[in-house]
Specification:
Layout: E1 18-19, H1 23-31, E2 37-42, E3 57-60, H2 69-81, E4 89-94, H3 96-108, E5 114-119, H4 122-128, E6 133-138, E7 141-148, E8 153-155, H5 166-182, H6 187-194, H7 202-222, H8 237-250, H9 260-279, H10 284-297, H11 307-315, E9 326-333, E10 336-343, H12 345-357
Parallel strand pairs: 1-8, 2-3, 2-4, 4-5, 5-8
Antiparallel strand pairs: 6-7, 9-10
Helix pairs in contact: 2-3, 3-4, 4-5, 4-7, 5-6, 5-9, 8-9, 8-11, 9-10, 9-12
Bound molecules: glycine.
Length: 358
């Protein structure tokens, strides 16, 4: 059975179309507007969506190295093989890596074809599949080639979460926590802190996913191309991306790559530490998130000896406006994010020391 968030919240006219509905009928309806439809899907996902039966499908193996130009090329080749035109539609089914790759291929194939995202992980539902960021990793840097190219719709259905591995679930929950920290209403933060991930039924999560999507939609609508305010969504990501990259590319000390959400939790702890020391944020959110990290996520695998490499990665983050600057979003308190905080390497190092001391 499909577990629906709610019915027919109709899409807006730009990038931020989020539709929570019966995805089969929503898809059927949307597909009528196109001459041809093709599907790009994670090979690990069960594609039991009746509307997609009989459509050409490219199944992709999504692993730690898949977010590459090579995979984008496979998608382009598939689109050419099926003679897709700008009158046709691509449907991307999978997690954030797949929808980012498919979105980039859609953005660039024949100068852009329409696509729909059907996110199948919690992370992609609450973050990656909306807002229009697409791209792939290049030269060891996460998402360093990409485009803002929103899907015409994102269809969210919580049925996919029933089979999601617990670590993937936690990874998505981290982005929900991030959203709750930057949201001007602090209720979401307090609700998520109470949420017992071991016992809470999935149905209880549906309205919280919906709220996270609504918060993101509001932020992206006000700044679709991240010229300013959208950077609040990067809270936890300056340190988080560096931790992810070091685990993925450099493999200096981590036995395996960090899942994105785990890196974001560690990044949020470092950035909450800086929020306390630089902006006078109360310590409670830092303490609460630290407890949650220790309970569910465990400690980061990095060592103090990774400090210099991490700082160098942060100085080369694509989000920086100037080279060799560490630019973070911090908070004054829950619901009060402050963008473009320039952090000295010494302060960044102190925040990492705090994180590694936990
Ligand atoms: N994932 C952050 C954003 O979409 O801006």
């Amino acid at each position: 059975m499909w577990n629906l968030l709610h019915n027919s919240k109709k899409s807006s006219n730009f990038a931020l179309e989020m539709v929570y509905t019966d995805i089969h009928s929503a898809l059927e309806e949307r597909m009528k507007r196109y001459e041809q439809v093709c599907v790009i899907a994670d090979e690990a996902v069960s594609l039991d969506i009746p509307a997609l039966e009989g459509m050409p499908v490219l199944r992709l193996k999504i692993n730690e190295t898949a977010k590459s130009l090579n995979t984008v090329t496979q998608i382009w080749d598939f689109l050419f093989a099926h003679e897709m035109t700008r009158k046709d539609l691509m449907v991307a089914v999978g997690g954030g890596v797949l929808t980012d790759l498919a979105g980039f291929a859609a953005a660039t194939y024949k100068r852009g074809i329409d696509y729909i995202n059907i996110p199948t992980t919690l992370l992609s539902m609450v973050d990656a599949s909306s807002g229009g960021k697409t791209g792939f990793n290049y030269q060891g840097l996460k998402n360093s080639i990409g485009a803002f190219y929103p899907p015409v719709e994102t269809l969210i259905c919580t049925k996919w979460l029933k089979t999601l591995p617990p670590q993937e679930f936690l990874s998505g929950f981290a982005e929900m926590l991030k959203t709750s920290i930057i949201d001007r209403d602090s209720w979401l933060w307090h609700v998520l802190l109470q949420y017992d991930l071991d016992t809470m039924p999935l149905d209880a999560l549906a309205p919280l996913i919906e709220e996270c999507v609504a918060v993101k939609e509001r932020i992206v609508k006000s700044d679709p191309r991240e010229t300013g305010f959208r950077k609040v969504l990067n809270f936890g990501h300056t340190f988080g991306h560096a931790l992810e990259e070091i685990s993925f590319v450099h493999r200096t000390s981590s036995p395996r790559p960090l899942l994105h959400g785990y890196a974001v939790v560690y990044g949020m702890i470092a950035e909450l530490y800086l929020s306390v020391t630089q902006l006078g944020c109360p310590r409670e959110p830092l303490q609460a998130l630290t407890q949650l990290m220790l309970h569910y996520y465990g400690r980061p695998q990095c060592k103090c000896s990774d400090r210099e490499a991490l700082i160098s990665l942060m100085q080369h983050d694509k989000k920086n406006e100037r080279a060799a600057e560490i630019n973070c979003t911090l908070i004054r308190s829950i619901g009060q994010p402050v963008i473009n905080q320039i952090i000295s390497p010494e302060d960044a190092s102190e925040a990492l020391d705090y994180l590694f001391s936990l």
